[in-house]
## 1
Amino acid sequence: SGRLDGRVALITGAARGLGAEYARAVAAEGASILIADVLDEPGEALAAELGERAAYAHLDVTSEADWEAAVAAAAARFGRLDVLVNNAGIANSAPIEHFTLAKWNAVIAVNLTGTFLGCRAVVPAMKAAGGGSIVNISSVEGLRGSPSLHGYTASKFGVRGLAKSLAVELGPAGIRVNSVHPGFIDTDMTTRIDPANLVIPLGRGGAPRDVAGTIVFLASDDSAWITGAEFVVDGGMTA
Ligand code: NAD
């Protein structure tokens, strides 16, 4: 039996990259999983791979209507919702003088507003069920600054802060809210970064499975007394 038997998780941006690995990992521990993304084909394929306890929902995290439909789909298909992982994200960069308002609005909309809408959408179901676990995917860029990442950095500090205000407000309802801060992970988002140029004490860049264990932990009762906390998973890069 798994650590997440009977639980239901919704993971955004789960069609590929880190989110897909989180979906595989929570499914392997027995959870049912709603894979949510705007990439329908890989999302459907992953749901098919994971079998009966998995389904795909088209969810643009910036859309209130999509959130309403996705939470309803989780309830209709699996009967409950215990875990939300706000993983969908985009990155862009430019020196500040060239950082257009369009660039800023795009990254804030998906990473920060999308996470806010997700948290707001799942709280009624989690309150009714007596609890739940929300994980906001931040970054090492939610802990420190890097040149040109202005919008990304602001969004990742934002979801870290949102986890804390929600943790304080929702603790009495049994809903835990934490942030996870991955370092360099080899995905489609980071193809232009060479980990050899980074100082990583553990000696290599990360793979999605290096972060998945922390997600399973935060989804499970092993973290029952942890809320408003930050989990840095970066091979020591920010130590
Ligand atoms: P990725 O680009 O491979 O995956 C991101 C996923 O989010 C994609 O499937 C994409 O379709 C989806 N997405 C984008 N916009 C969306 C929207 N509006 N609605 C729904 N889904 C949307 O990137 P990844 O590396 O797997 O990143 C996943 C998360 O981890 C992001 O929040 C990212 O900021 C964060 N992160 C990544 C790294 C890294 O090194 N790769 C490090 C720290 C944090």
## 2
Amino acid sequence: ESVLPLVINTWAFQSATETAWKVLEQGGSSLDAVEKGCAQCEIDQCDGSVGYGGSPDEMGETTLDAMIMDGNTMNVGAVADLRRIKNAIGVARAVLDYSKHTFLVGESASLFAESMGFLHEDLTTVKSRSIYLNWLNQNCQPNYWRNVVPDASKSCGPYKPVKGFKEWKNLHTENKVNLHSHDTIGMIAVDEAGNVATGTSTNGATHKIPGRVGDSPIAGAGSYADSTTGGAAATGNGDLMMRFLPSYQAVEYMRLGMEPSKACEKTISRIQKHFPAFFGAVICANNSGSYGMCCLLIASYIFH
Ligand code: SD4
């Protein structure tokens, strides 16, 4: 008996899974299921880590990364550092459907979105403002600057965002990030005929340096789909994970005949070899509906 169709996503974002499932139940495509499912998380602001009003950057702004991939045509639409538009995966889908490009970024991506009829809205909320202000007031540690050493004599806060190399050189803090500075929806949908689609949507890493793009919108990193094999999606420390193209890697392991769980484990362990303390997860499913995952979570880690 066929175990298809199938929807699987990262984290316990059940409303997203249900929305995607409904699309498949009504005979919709796996691509539509992924788009609608991830869009549900953008509306729900899943965990504060997807959609508007979460993960303010060092200047307090929320920016969004998303991608969607069609495993039949190998078409991809992606946006990163998207500003003032809530429906990031919708814009990614518009890039896929209406342009010959794969990836649009920053202000220009927002202009593209507006030209496609997406609403221009402020992504800042009372909550994201207060996350930002609390961080400024209580934190003496920038989250994402490399090679800065702790200075025990320095008391915490208020933190001033780093403006340039001179300031960076003067920093005396430790780069610590905790688990809750990351989260993302990554979704795989396989319809009854075995058509695979994948997608992601995230507001990235909290207090990131403006302009930072994570793994999520990058094909092969955040997710990857190939209907001849299956699909995969990743979540976790995108700055590290994107160096290993984990979603591509997991699909390629499955292509070689590996069981989905084994494919995910092997993918994670390759990253772990270089970064023993990284946290992240990979989920994958093959085109006949077997699925697996591997997750490595550590409460807090030193940023590499
Ligand atoms: C990022 N990978 O922007 C995303 C965040 C994430 O679970 O997935 N967190 O780095």
## 3
Amino acid sequence: RKDGQSGDGIPTFLLLGPSGSGKTALVTVLQTRGNVAKSEAKEADEEVDEEEERSRSAVNGHSRDALSPTRLSQIASTTRMRLLPGTPLGSNRYRSENDYEVTASKKEGAVYKIIDTPGHGKLRSEQAISYINKTGIGLKGVIFMLDSSAMDTSAADDGEMAKDTVSYLHDVLLNLQRRPKLVKKAKAEDVRVLVVCNKQDLFTSLPTTAVKSRLEMELERLKASKKRGISAVDAKEDADENEDETVLGGGGEQKFTFKMLDDEFGVTVEIVGGFVKDEEENNDVKRWEEWIGGCL
Ligand code: GTP
């Protein structure tokens, strides 16, 4: 089996992000644009592997048939998708225009899967982040979705939403940084990261470049406090080694940047803005589709 492909050979993307950022809305829009036949999508909805079934029971104390739709949003669910036909694929870059697969992706749109996860804080480690280190699901990419209108750290809620988003992203990136150590044969480059700055239609939203610098600033803060915690606890000799393992971007003195994560650990992060739906039901998701296509 090639890496980045699941047991059935279909490349899989993990969709993460806090509650209300728009994850489920994104899956719906991408499905519509990809013209996923109703029967095909339904089939995938019902395609629950044993492990998922077990965790459903563990979370809810019920078998899946007994669950109401609201309860279903408390657990991760896998959906089969198709890309908007004609979206360029990474693997097509070196193929000729007449190649069968190129023509097929133009007509039908490449098949992939999305694991949509619950955003609630209490469910994250079990139902979302844990998928990063699971083997056999063929992870190609992680899409971290945030609400760009909730990134104000001095907002009325004391910036709680923004802080929650940053700490979630921190945990996701740290898990990706450690992945090659935890997962046999995994290389950091195998899994790419897209940070989706959603809700750019709202005038209260922070522009994407501002979201990026805010994230870097806040992630640096988290990194610094984590580092202080570790050196306080560990004897100095152990601290350095430990920091590379447990501090985002490693234990160096440099300020955290996304570039550093790429340079030092091979974790490539792209940050792209757009919106799933505005008041008139328009969307701006094309660049996210192109990123997915680039991974396929
Ligand atoms: P959880 O399932 O709780 O993790 O949330 P979620 O991330 O799946 O969010 P969901 O898709 O349910 O969207 C939350 C709300 O945001 C819904 O009311 C959406 O209609 C709205 N929404 C999603 N995307 C956009 C967007 O781009 N712009 C605007 N204005 N609203 C959006």
